[in-house]
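Hi W., the 2-acetamido-2-deoxy-beta-D-glucopyranose complex you wanted:
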Amino acid sequence: MKLTAAIFLLLMVSVYCSAQTPNIVFILTDDQDTEIGGMTPLEKTKRLIGDNGITFLNMFVTTPICCPSRASIFTGKYQHNHRTLNNTVDGGCSNTAWQQTEEHQAFPVHLQTQGYDTFFAGKYLNQYGMDTVGGVGHVPPGWSSWVGLVGNSVYYNYTLSVNGTAETHGHDYTSDYLTDVIHKRAKEFLGDKTNDSSPFFMMLSTPACHDPWEPAPQYENNFPDIQAPRFGSFNTHGKGKHWLIQQAITPMDNDTIAFVDDVYRRRWRTLLSVDDMVEDLVNTLDAKGLLANTFIFFSSDNGYHTGQFSMPTDKRLLYEFDVRVPLLVRGPGVAAGSKNEENVLNIDFGPTFVELAGGHVPDTMDGMSLASVLHNTRDDSVPFRTEFLTEYQGETNINIFSCSQWENQGMAYCPVWAHCVCEDSWNNTYTCIRRSDGEQNMKFCQFADSESFEEMYDLSRDHYELMNIAKSHPEERSQLLDAMSRLVACNGASCRSSQANLS
Ligand SMILES: *[C@@H]1O[C@H](CO)[C@@H](O)[C@H](O)[C@H]1NC(C)=O
Ligand SMILES: *[C@@H]1O[C@H](CO)[C@@H](O)[C@H](O)[C@H]1NC(C)=O
Ligand SMILES: *[C@@H]1O[C@H](CO)[C@@H](O)[C@H](O)[C@H]1NC(C)=O
Ligand SMILES: *[C@@H]1O[C@H](CO)[C@@H](O)[C@H](O)[C@H]1NC(C)=O
Ligand SMILES: *[C@@H]1O[C@H](CO)[C@@H](O)[C@H](O)[C@H]1NC(C)=O
Ligand SMILES: *[C@@H]1O[C@H](CO)[C@@H](O)[C@H](O)[C@H]1NC(C)=O
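Structure:
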């Protein structure tokens, strides 16, 4: 018996000592919500990552729009620190200033310095690869192998930068469907990996489920009877909301509802190719003996709405459906089938990856490493994070289509097929603070519009944010406003200093 125990102990020690630096796979979808059923079609992903790892129930983006949220993911910073304010070059999206400053502090640069073989495939930042910002020849620092989509998400007819050389794709499903091209490139990257290779980081950034919502042909007719969910704030105006919501049409016209339902189904269909990719990658890692030492993260850059508060189809709003996203993680030391209710953010990816790879959270980053949450080694009696910001700058005078009443009014995304309801405007510019500390669960927002309009929700009673209580709760309002004024000026460690576990 004693001998067996000694051998067992020796074995454990040798396993522990040979524990390699982990590999990390990061799958980032585009515009995938979690509030209105965005994870439902991903059966295999939920089983292979969620059931074999941890599902975060309170994962938020700090800005609900593609390029600024991605800038937060790469830099680990709030928008007020990375200054990518919208999806345009003028707004800091992949522009020269970004390339000269923020891009050099992004997490892949740290991982590469720490000895990781880093691979990227898919959508990077909305303006990436455009001639105005250096064209396809610009390969962001930190990536050993680069397959970057030029421009915004599409499924066919696009150009990739393959290590700085243009590769054009047409509209043949078998060779050009972007989700599948990302999938194939990922398999090629894994091709020569063994458990003796240096550790790798692989980021796969899919066009699904962004517009134009083109599913693979085999999935074109799935979910024929699915509709956008009718619960909560669907097709209502709510009480006392800001100007942009007031201009929506309630009840929505029948053709708008038909459009919204169609978009909802097409979003789900595009995600089925992502689900196939996840399954194949998990199987490939398993076959190579790499799975046990590989973290797999699954998340999205922002949420989405389909008819909530009668806003047809978009993101950019301060409400739960646009700011909540999925986060599933499996990997070494992560308990299978666990659920976690801590508040976690898109600015936590950078700190987490760097720490899991054996480094220290860089001073430049505002977010917090999730490593102790993943490994369940933190003191659970103290919340991980009790306060955080959402920051959004409204876009102006774009995509007015033929809605002439909105020409030069500072409005944006006013589709004529939704009766010219606008989804954004210059004055949909806001900062929100969320305080959720086990006692309170409040959201307070202030707009930079002509009225400094305010909205406040008690999410513990009003999850669907139907009732604005900013005017009726002056005491809570002023406490949250104080906390918000501190956080909007935070930088690095000071963004974390109000968190109980770091004080
Ligand atoms: C990019 O270049 C690196 C270094 O030469 C190489 O290892 C990698 O395979 C290349 N990636 C692609 C997608 O061709
Ligand atoms: C791709 O481009 C071709 C040729 O211009 C066009 O016929 C096709 O409709 C386009 N397909 C998509 C999905 O954009
Ligand atoms: C690596 O894989 C080989 C072949 O599958 C196996 O014999 C070896 O034990 C593995 N080493 C580690 C450290 O897992
Ligand atoms: C809209 O749809 C509802 C429910 O199907 C129906 O009762 C109503 O008549 C329709 N309205 C129009 C204008 O077609
Ligand atoms: C993007 O942000 C920049 C900088 O604030 C601004 O000049 C530009 O008008 C914005 N673009 C849109 C479409 O709102
Ligand atoms: C918001 O902007 C629109 C369009 O410019 C304008 O009509 C509206 O009065 C503004 N509302 C507020 C509160 O600033």
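The mean pLDDT is 95.

W.
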